[in-house]
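Q: How do we represent a protein-ligand complex in a form that can be generated token by token?
A: Start from the inputs.
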Amino acid sequence: MRTAYRTCPFCEAACGLELTIDGDRVTAARGDREHVFSHGFVCPKGATFAQLTDDPDRLRQPLVNGREATWDEAFAAVRAGLRPILEAYGPHALALYLGNPNTHTMSGGLYITPLVKALGSRNVYSASTVDQMPKHVSCGYLFGNPLTIPVPDLDRTDFLLMLGANPWESNGSLATAADFPGRLKAIQKRGGRFVVVDPRRTVTASHADEHLFIRPGTDALLLYGIVHTLFAEDLTDLGSLSAHVTGVAEVRELAADFAPERVAETCGIPAERIRGLARELAAAPTAAVYGRIGTCTVEFGTVTSWLVDVVNILTGNLDRPGGVMFPLAPHLTDEAKRGKGFRTGRWHSRVRGFGEVKGELPVATLADEIETAGDEQVRALITIAGNPVLSTPNSGRLDRALAGLDFMVSVDPYLNETTRHADVVLPPTDATRKGHYDFSFLALAVRNFAAYSPPVLPPDPSTPDECDILARLALILSGQPDADPGLLHDHLLEQALQRVVAAGPSPAASGRSPAVAPGLSAADTGSSPAASDPEAVAPTRRRLDDLRAQVTGDHPAERLLDVALRTGAYGDRFGANPGGLTLRKLIDSPHGIDLGPLQPRIPSALRTPSGKIELCAPPLAGETARLLASLDRRRDDLVLVGRRHLRSNNSWMHNVPALIKGRDRCTLQVNPVDADRTALTDGDSAQVTSRAGSLVVRVEVTDRVMPGVVSLPHGWGHDVPGTRLSVAATNPGVNSNVLTDELVIDPLSGNSVLNGIPVEIKPA
Ligand SMILES: Nc1nc2c(c(=O)[nH]1)N[C@H]1C(S)=C(S)[C@@H](COP(=O)(O)OP(=O)(O)OC[C@H]3O[C@@H](n4cnc5c(=O)[nH]c(N)nc54)[C@H](O)[C@@H]3O)O[C@H]1N2
Ligand SMILES: Nc1nc2c(c(=O)[nH]1)N[C@H]1C(S)=C(S)[C@@H](COP(=O)(O)OP(=O)(O)OC[C@H]3O[C@@H](n4cnc5c(=O)[nH]c(N)nc54)[C@H](O)[C@@H]3O)O[C@H]1N2
Ligand code: SF4
Ligand SMILES: [Mo]
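Then emit the structure tokens for the protein with iron/sulfur cluster bound:
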């Protein structure tokens, strides 16, 4: 028996786990009390780490046409399936769907970019367009980089306004904060307040100082009402930001149309309360506005996400302690640099003409691209760590479309609702045999810290690591099907080192380093050392050899991480900053290294062409007109919203008995007023119908949802044939995305609308 420490990979909170290991099995997990960020916090999902990784239904061998196969047979089948399609129809005939857990694996952080490059297809899709794409777009316009997302400084704020987020259950998102509930309670303990705006009285709302019901999809109107008030009552105060912001007058003009009286009825919040919120935000010593799923997965998702930060900026709360701030992750640097700014629409989807955003197309149009005949029709699909049949809108249609593909390959540990359509399933090793570093979430953490967890069990010789799987796929796509994955591993390391050399004669001397981790950002590639000058070649090669000799790590991902850490903001700069971060240092610190509270980062974080925060980008002004027009629309009688439960994680944790036991959670919550109106009582079966589809589900009558709103969680519907989810199948629930509509999207980001879906209900 021994103990090992590992970051929990299941949600964005990045808690430290203490694992008990007996021989070659993890037998128990609990919170790591010495962890610098989570201090022992753990939730039920982290606590079932062992059951999740040991699930007997996990695939331990590849499947080819439903039968277990060797890894060589499986890769041969991938090659035989993909090559003819690529040769006959070109790269766009092959689509890629990337699911959420790619943000929780090192293979996702390091190997997706080379894979996408090798693919060369316009048809790249991901869970980002059923999630946070509006935030990327609004931050792209405001700050010049879609990854520059400010997070609420939870530990120092005096007043937090939270819209469309339920961190008591979700543990937070786009704000990595282990023990989010504890941090919220601490706001109250130090005399501060937090207010929740949500069409449901969530657990988070019930702990809040105030909860305001809001009609789904109307947060943009509420926020414009606040902005209007800030200007009308002369409450704006940009403080030290004022030298760094353009476009304030334009926003003032746009907000003129959104007096609180104009929006109050549509939002369901009295005008006087809207004014009150504006006054409280302006008066608080520090304040933060934070919006999440309920502000993104709605028709005006990008405008809403933008207005969240407009309020933060107008009240002077961006980039100051207690407001919203930009984290500085250990693999990134804080170098000031003029940017090219942010734009979308560099290419368009074939069928519905949606513009590309951040290199991808809206997943709401994937079924169109598969079903519609023509040149460049999608005929084959790769999915990696995704279950779009349960997680994307009108999933009934996508399910049928996947059945019609010529070829599909999935990298996934489960045979589930999506991967059952795959000709080849490639199951990666579980988290016990993977190293872990949070490329995504350390850049969103409410306090700067560093942590790396090496694998807690030795590699399993019969199963390739997920980095190897993705590398082999990338090599197959680039026409080198027989190459060893080591070829790509070496190439990526060489590229990373060349970037270090190119960043200056010696990063040691200049103190400069590349802005992004190797392989992380497509935006920051392509710079090679100044090798055209023959004089420069020899020293360059010497320097490369010197750096290569210093890199440590037992695994290709560890070596790439070592380079990123050493050249990052806190790095040892390959010796020039002794005592700075290295991989070795993180391995020697199993409870993580605290790097202190968030620090101001403006202007160095900005990448706009003007070098300023561009408060009023033209696309947002354009959407404002559409938002204003929406005020005159007839209101739907009944709309559907989602919800999350602490013991689930999207679609893939319903196969663990400890996480699924207890009362049926997949119910339709209906307010008593609506239940009366539709002759439904608690426990009845209701038929729910939308434009996209229809389902039957058990009713739970509760005043925790507001009148006119019903709620159903997503990620359920495990009763389809052909899966291997024996526990989930016993309590399957229904798939809420049968009801969500692929025809309505947030136009600026391509994000799906998953909340505020018009529905009708009646006794089944
Ligand atoms: N109606 C509605 N729909 C929603 C949402 C909503 O709020 N309402 N939320 C949306 C959001 S926020 C998200 S992020 C999406 C999620 O959408 P998806 O990412 O498509 O779905 P998940 O259920 O997260 O599926 C994750 C898959 O990854 C696999 N997996 C787990 N660990 C690993 C690993 O280490 N490697 C690999 N290769 N695979 C792994 C699991 O078996 C599972 O198949 O759903 C969205 N859908
Ligand atoms: N336990 C658990 N934890 C998770 C996940 C999970 O499935 N289960 N998923 C993970 C993922 S991928 C993500 S992205 C995060 C999401 O993290 P959160 O954003 O905190 O997720 P939700 O719990 O869905 O909270 C969204 C809230 O928005 C409300 N809402 C719906 N429509 C509107 C609206 O129009 N306006 C307002 N103001 N509110 C609205 C809903 O009622 C709901 O309470 O959670 C992560 N953590
Ligand atoms: S809150 Fe998230 S990171 Fe922490 S233990 Fe739970 S699932 Fe893991
Ligand atoms: Mo998500």
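The longest strand covers residues 694-701. The domain at 134-333+602-627 is CATH 3.40.228.10 (Dimethylsulfoxide Reductase; domain 2).
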